[in-house]
Amino acid sequence: MNRIRIDIVSDVVCPWCIIGYKRLEHALNNLSDSIEADIYWHPFELNPAMGEEGQNLREHLHEKYGTSEEASISARETLTQLGKEVGFKFNFYDGMRIYNTRKAHQLLMWAQSENKQFELEQALFKAYFSDAMDVSDSQVLLECAASVGLDSEVASNIINDESWAEAVATTEQQWLEAGINAVPAIIIDRKHLISGAQTTELLMSALQQISESAEQANGE
């Protein structure tokens, strides 16, 4: 059994990030007889300057990427279908908004030290994409934290502590300086970068090759 480290740089309002992760999850399940993975999540804010009120998602995509309403409808249909294929429910709707995720990342960074990062990450993806919740709202964040067994009082302190906000910003800057400017970004064993939501088959092939190369190197 080979053990590998996987770092995932992502944002909880990025639909391709959850699709990419679910495909990775399927790949690891298919290789569970030969590979075990330790997964670490890292912050990346798609919109660090987004105000507290957020913005209508369609308006945002049009302003940022020039996406037309027709293209937006098509993209939502595609994402919804891809979500079904990997077992994740997208619940897009006309008035959907996109939000600032700094506080969410503060909680996720703390949750790693509590061994609850994975559970919180999944809860936040579900809250935003499946349950139409505002993941910039402190009460929503505290409910997500409590749902995975994290202490609500400590969680409240974390999201209101400027030093945690600065820690998130510093970490994000380090990833930018390392060349990560889009997500999801999956880094295997600290040196093999896979960009974007690749297919389960491609991920399986990459994991096998990297695992076999590591095994050979250790054997030498």
UniProtKB/TrEMBL annotation:
InterPro entries: DSBA-like_thioredoxin_dom, Thioredoxin-like_sf. Signal peptide: none annotated. Pfam families: DSBA. GO terms for molecular function: oxidoreductase activity. Residues 6-208 form the DSBA-like thioredoxin domain. PANTHER family: GLUTATHIONE S-TRANSFERASE KAPPA, THIOREDOXIN SUPERFAMILY PROTEIN. This is DSBA-like thioredoxin domain-containing protein.
